[in-house]
Design a protein that fits this description.
With 368 residues, this protein is α/β, with parallel strands linked by helices. The protein has 2 domains: 99 residues, Rieske Iron-sulfur Protein (3-layer Sandwich); 223 residues, Rossmann fold (3-Layer(aba) Sandwich). It contains 11 helices and 15 strands. It has a 5-stranded parallel beta sheet, with helices on both faces. A 4-stranded antiparallel beta sheet has the order 2-3-4-8, with no helix packed on it. A hairpin with a 2-residue loop joins strand 3 and strand 4. Helix 2 crosses helix 10. It is elongated and about 85 Å long. It binds FE2/S2 (inorganic) cluster. The site of FE2/S2 (inorganic) cluster has 10 residues, from loops.
């Protein structure tokens, strides 16, 4: 490694710094990932190439630092990326021990380098394509593959989508979460706000992650999301929560980048269950989708339950199957949602003042 042409910065006693294989130190204004393996120190920038993760707080994998946010790897002494990604490198610093002190060069001796990656398709700016109102229905019901059963919430969702398509001339798609292979949120936001990225870190690293279907529909394709859920123990289904946890990255763009991905879109809900808790379930849904930027039509949900005392699961499916009132309610919900979306889409140019009021989330109104 070339000798630095600039000054050295004393970062501490060698005996003390050798006790931990990896730590974060500062050398002047620079954050340094200082490692020590077999008595040999290495010093590279402590700021990851990806989205700035703290490399000095990660861990070692042989001679490579592993970023604690999304596990990118960089050589602990040269800063080069792992094999195959060598050009994706963080700056390295000269380091030496003199008089029992560890000295790090005040300036890096190699530069940061980025491998150019094609941007993920989801990363494109959301721009509404011309065309009819588009309605995406999301069914969050789980059932055994190959052995379908009647789902009351999904059945009403299908009624709503059929009405939107046939009577309201909307384009529609039905997304059944159970058909998608996607993992649970891995809690990047809990590591640091900026560690939760858009597109989601999981989707960005795994081309097979089918949460991309939901992201594409919610952020890019749909004007209306119709979300259908059964009630499970007084709450929405586990698949619903698995999906919404993964949608944190949409809201988080408002917090970390002042970037609102959801504009002029409508969400509405269909909730069914054997026991009552409809208002609590829809309350969570209104709160969550409201924070993403969705707006709601008047009377934004339809629901059915056979309540606590009168629960009767033997009759529940038959009641829904036979209820023209519920089907009419689902059709009317689709009508209100499409009408609201139509107003939002067609008023986008004329009413920009009102719409730009929504450019920043209210709950986290502070700057990034
Ligand atoms: S891997 Fe380091 S910030 Fe993402």
């Amino acid at each position: 490694m070339p000798e630095p042409s600039t000054d050295w910065v004393d970062v501490g006693a060698a005996a003390e710094l050798a006790r931990e294989p990896l730590r974060e130190v500062t050398a002047g204004a620079a954050r340094i990932a200082l490692s020590c393996v077999g008595g040999e120190f290495g010093a590279v920038s402590g700021v990851c190439n990806h989205v700035g993760g703290p490399l000095g707080q990660g861990q070692l994998d042989g001679e490579f630092l592993v970023c604690p946010w999304h596990q990118y790897k960089f050589h602990r002494r040269t800063g080069a990326g792992e094999p195959g990604y060598e050009a994706d490198r963080v700056p390295s610093y000269a380091v030496k021990v003199e008089g029992g002190r560890v000295l790090v060069s005040a300036k890096p001796v190699t530069k940061r380098g980025h491998l150019t990656h094609a941007p993920h398709p989801l990363a494109r700016e959301p721009v509404r394509a011309a065309g009819p109102i588009r309605v995406a229905g999301i069914s969050t019901t789980m059932m055994q593959p190959g052995f379908p059963r009647y789902s009351t919430s999904e059945a009403l969702l299908e009624v709503a989508l059929t009405h939107a398509r046939e009577a309201l001339a909307a384009e529609t798609q039905l997304i059944r979460l159970r058909d998608l292979a996607f993992g649970a949120c891995e809690g990047y936001y809990s590591r640091a706000a900026r560690a939760c990225t858009w597109p989601c870190s999981i989707t960005a690293r795994d081309a097979a992650d089918q949460m991309a279907v939901v992201y594409e529909a919610a952020v890019h394709w749909a004007d209306v999301l119709l979300v259908a859920t059964p009630i499970r123990w007084g709450a929405a289904s586990s698949l619903y929560y698995k999906m919404t946890e993964r949608m944190n990255c949409i809201q988080n763009q408002i917090t970390t980048a002042n970037r609102v991905l959801i504009r002029r879109k409508v969400a509405a809900f269909i909730i069914t269950g054997g026991q009552d808790n409809v208002q609590a379930v829809v309350g969570q849904q209104l709160g969550f989708f409201g924070e993403l930027g969705f707006v709601f039509p008047p009377f934004p949900f339809v629901a059915h339950s056979l309540g606590w005392d009168a629960e009767d699961m033997e009759r529940n499916v038959a009641v829904v199957r036979g209820s023209e009132t519920l089907r009419e309610g689902a059709r009317a919900l689709a009508g209100r949602a499409v009408e609201a979306a139509t107003q939002l889409v067609t008023s986008a140019g004329a009413d920009t003042a009102r719409l730009t009021l929504g450019s920043r989330g209210g709950r986290k109104a502070h700057g990034p």
